[in-house]
Amino acid sequence: MQLCERRHPSRQHVWLKPPVRRWFRGIRSYAGRQRHRCGLEIVVASGSILEVIDTKPKQDAVGAGEVARPLWTILAIAICLLVLRRLVHQSFFLDGAIYASIARNLSEGIGSPWKLQFSQTMFSVFSEHPPLMMWLEAIGFRLFGDTIAVEKGFTFLTLVASGFILLKIWQSLHANDPELRAGGPVALAMALVAGRVSWAFSNGMLENLLIVFTSLAIYGVVGAYGKAGARTSVSRTLVMIVSGLLVALALLTKGPVGLFPVATPAIYWIVFRRPGIWSVVVDSFVMVATVAAVFVVLWQFEGARDAITRYLSIQLFPSLTGQRGISRGHWSAVRTFFRVNAYPAVITLIILLCDKRWGQAPVLTRDVKLSRLRIATFLALVGFSASLPLLVSPLISSFYFNPSLAYFASAFAVACVPAIMRALRGSAARIRHIMSLGLLALLALSVVLVAFNFGRPGHDAATIADASKIAAQVCSSPNACEDKVAVCGAAARDWVLYTYLQRTYKISLTPIDARTGGYLIVDDSCAADIASYRDTDLSLLNYRLMKKLPM
After folding, report:
1. Crossing angle, helix 184-193 and helix 342-358, to 10 degrees?
2. 5 versus 404: which is more confidently predicted?
3. Which of 23, 31, 88, 336 has the fewest CB atoms within 10 Å around its CB?
4. What integer pLDDT is reported at residue 514 of this predicted model?
5. Which is it for the CA torsion 332, 334, 339, 340, positive or negative?
6. Are 2 and 20 in contact (CB under 8 A)?
7. Are strands 484-487 and 508-511 parallel, antiparallel or unpaired?
């Protein structure tokens, strides 16, 4: 109930309800300043009330959406600087370039949907990951041809889709809290600076598509339970079936790490105590049964069955048992977990300390505080459901945590958005206008920086240059290259060179002892007999290109 009936624009005149008037009379015997919970500060001297000051933040004509406009500009600047600036380079991380090469090959009929192929000599049958992302990228290559714009555009689409879905989750959870609802850009910006999220979106990683499918599944659960009173059991069951299908797509993107959304109904009930426990049990069963049904159907097809078997035996089980890769799990995984969450945590801490020192104390009801605490808890628990399996895995990389970081970042945002919104709302209109102009100028500079980097080689510039020189020598025309080039020494382990040669020129590298190919890439560490080759005198950074002498 509002205690202050009306506030006059001049802060000395306030009309009060009777309980507040009685409180006024009770403080006349004190000198100094007294504060009432309705946001009034009373100046008392010599038993008289000298001034009534309305200290409650004004909720004038400036709405939460208008106040939050600078936050959208900040988010756009972060996207330009952290993602687009690197995405427009020619360089691509090794994994992303391999996936793009496989997708390009598939679009040209090399390999098959269940027997993907990277090259003739390396990953001739690719079993490192499930195939869904390569299938989707192959559609892009079929439509637009063999161009680097396909993989760059695909990863940009996953960025846009992920951001939109995560924003809808945020808005659904804060449907009854306009101030927090308007703070969605803060949650997205927090996610971008966390761990290697922005790096992954610049390099075409599987985690990008994994975030899309898992977030869609979670959004389905949040949407169904947020409107539990309005949904029938039949409509909610349909939503759970769709969410289960999305989890199955996540599994087809990167394996068991995509399973965590099936825990969302239970987490929602633990935090919000709705809907009923039996509804949650049934919904969880429906999601799990849908996932199982998808794979039972796939198992009936020989190609899918063989692909699943290869993935389990070559990649998943050996990785879980530590038989392949460099084992960096357990305590190393725990350290990585804290490291990837460090930036959002530090930013939140700084904002809260500044708010405590210079900010205005918030006037919140108990219900609002409890609601915000529950939402932050829910988001954090969803993040833990995605990251806990990684903490016990013997094989770990920092970007494996990316699907969980958006939820941890959103939990941190719940804590700091109110302070940011109070600071923006408390600023004079002129200050907000100047700040908006400054941010727009920074955004313009960021766009210019992205344009300046467009098409530049990037961090793999030296390798890209070497690959181009090698291709110019071994290709008689752009589409007529030697399909195999021999390697010896360090070049035999230069996976980045291998990937760029295959992605751009469809050249496979093969060991020198295979005695194939008319050319040899070599360095001083090569111990093989290369007397049958002569140096082409091609200027390469780390290697020499040699040509086989005619017999």
Report:
1. 130
2. 404
3. 31
4. 60
5. positive
6. no
7. parallel
Query: Whose CA is closest to 133, among 212, 79, 198?
Result: 212
Least confident interval from 103-112, 237-246, 481-490 = 481-490
Does the pLDDT value for residue 335 go beyond 70? yes
Q: What DSSP state is assigned to residue 549? A: P
Q: How confident is the model at residue 392 (pLDDT cuts 50, 70, 90)?
A: confident
Is the bond preceding 275 in cis, omega lying within 30 degrees of 0? yes
Q: Which two tokens stand for residue 380?
A: 């954090």
- For residues 510 and 231, what is the distance between their CA atoms, to the nearest angstrom? 60
Residue 326 has pLDDT above 70, yes or no: no
Q: Which helix (H) or strand (E) holds 112?
A: none
d(CA 303, CA 412): 45
What phi, psi does 523 have (nearest 5°)?
A: -135, -175
Instruction: Give me the pLDDT at residue 394, please.
Output: 74
Rounded distance between C-alpha atoms, residue 134 and residue 130, angstroms: 9
Are 131 and 252 within 8 A, CB to CB? Answer: yes
Residues 231, 236, 238, 242, Cα dihedral to 10°: 120
Give a three-class secondary structure readout of 200-265.
HHHCCCHHHHHHHHHHHHHHHHHHHHHCCCCCCHHHHHHHHHHHHHHHHHHHHHHHHHHHHHHHHH
Distance (Å, whole) CA 64 – CA 66 = 6
Q: pLDDT digits over 125-157, tens only?
A: 999 999 999 999 999 999 999 999 999 999 999
Strand ordering across the sheet containing 519-522:
508-511, 484-487, 519-522, 544-548, 533-535
For helices 264-272 and 366-391, what crossing angle results, to 10°?
A: 150
Q: Which of 162-166, 465-469, 508-512, 538-542 has the highest mean pLDDT?
A: 162-166
Task: Give tens-digit pLDDT for 161-172.
Answer: 999 999 999 999
pTM of the full predicted structure? 0.85
Asked if residues 182 and 65 have their Cβ atoms less than 8 Å apart, the reply is yes
Q: What pairs with residue 535 in β-bridges?
A: 546
Tokens 């806990």 belong to 388
DSSP secondary structure, 284-309, as one string:
HHHHHHHHHHHHHHHHTSHHHHHHHH
For position 334, what pLDDT does the model report? Answer: 87
Q: How much is the pLDDT for 419?
A: 92
Q: Which two tokens stand for residue 275?
A: 């809907």
With contact defined as beta carbons under 8 Å apart, do 513 and 492 qualify?
no
The residues, ordered by sequence, that sit 6+ positions from 386 with a Cβ below 8 Å of its Cβ are 214, 257, 260, 401, 403, 404, 407
* Tokens, residue 241: 């079936």
Tokens of 158: 């996953």
CA distance 317 to 314: 7
